[in-house]
Amino acid sequence: MRPTFAPSRTPSHRAIKAVIPAAGLGTRFLPATKATPKEMLPVVDKPAIQYVVEEAVEAGLSDVLMVTGRNKRALEDHFDSNYELESALKRKGDTDRLARVQESSALADLHYVRQGDPRGLGHAVLCAEQHVANQPFAVLLGDDLIDPRDQLLRRMVEVQEQKGGSVIALMEVDPADIHMYGCAAIKRTTEDAVVTITGLVEKPAAGEAPSTYAVIGRYVLDPAVFDVLRTTRPGRGGEIQLTDALQELVCDENLGGPVHGIVFRGRRYDTGDRGDYLRAIVRLACERPDLGPDFQAWLRDFVREMA
């Protein structure tokens, strides 16, 4: 029998852990991802995964677990010290590049666990149970980069502390695109951008979506989700879907408390699609003070030539 929900009165300074599933094969980016993890593909001059870890740390989550798979050793190497490279940069007196190299190894307290058999996002989250233990935790998907100026994850943690249960990030999308996402039915609350989730469906068929609110890759979850995931049957694509487990929590608050959503209206960069990946690089490069002015000037000339 699953345990019932008992609301905790945890103080707001509680430190929660972050989980980053990173076991996917990255087939949409083949052949680039044949030998390189998709999470290590560069976005301007940093791998995508570093932006995600930086987001967790900025929100106060310095304990980070990566759920990895085969051929993901490069992730661990990137966040480890590289003594040979650092020594070479020190000898050259290249302090700027040395600082950038050392930054990734000092970002967070990084841990790793192997998923083994890739059975979907829900299964990847279940692999984090031993590390997370009986505490709320955040899940950050590496395909979604959230602009650090928008503070989405920090707000989600605050809402979870205030209301208990779980909190998921939502974004309103074009009705023609909702079939590509998990979709939420919602009920408004008195708080701006905070909604109560009344239903969830994974990638609904056209015309069957309960709304245009798509689930994007940020979650703050009650640990009761582990009990649900252990008995969640494979769903769409033959995988254990996190959306299906959250739907069960929505249907029975006694399992793990309520499920709320934060409607995000900020800047999100989708690196899981090749076209959006390229657009993300252009947007971020344009905003960089060291790259933006020259790059924007070139881009304007290029667009004029293409017109």
UniProtKB/TrEMBL annotation:
GO molecular function, one term: UTP:glucose-1-phosphate uridylyltransferase activity
Domain Nucleotidyl transferase: 17-281
Keyword check for Nucleotidyltransferase: yes
Keyword entries, A-Z: Nucleotidyltransferase, Transferase
Record keyword Nucleotidyltransferase present: yes
InterPro entries: GalU_uridylyltTrfase_bac/arc, NTP_transferase_dom, Nucleotide-diphossugar_trans
Cross-referenced Pfam families: NTP_transferase
EC number, as in UniProt: 2.7.7.9
Catalytic reactions of this protein: alpha-D-glucose 1-phosphate + UTP + H(+) = UDP-alpha-D-glucose + diphosphate
Protein family according to the UniProt entry: Belongs to the UDPGP type 2 family.
Matches recorded under PANTHER family: UTP--GLUCOSE-1-PHOSPHATE URIDYLYLTRANSFERASE
Identification of the protein by name: UTP--glucose-1-phosphate uridylyltransferase
Lineage: Bacteria, Bacillati, Actinomycetota, Actinomycetes, Kitasatosporales
Gene: galU
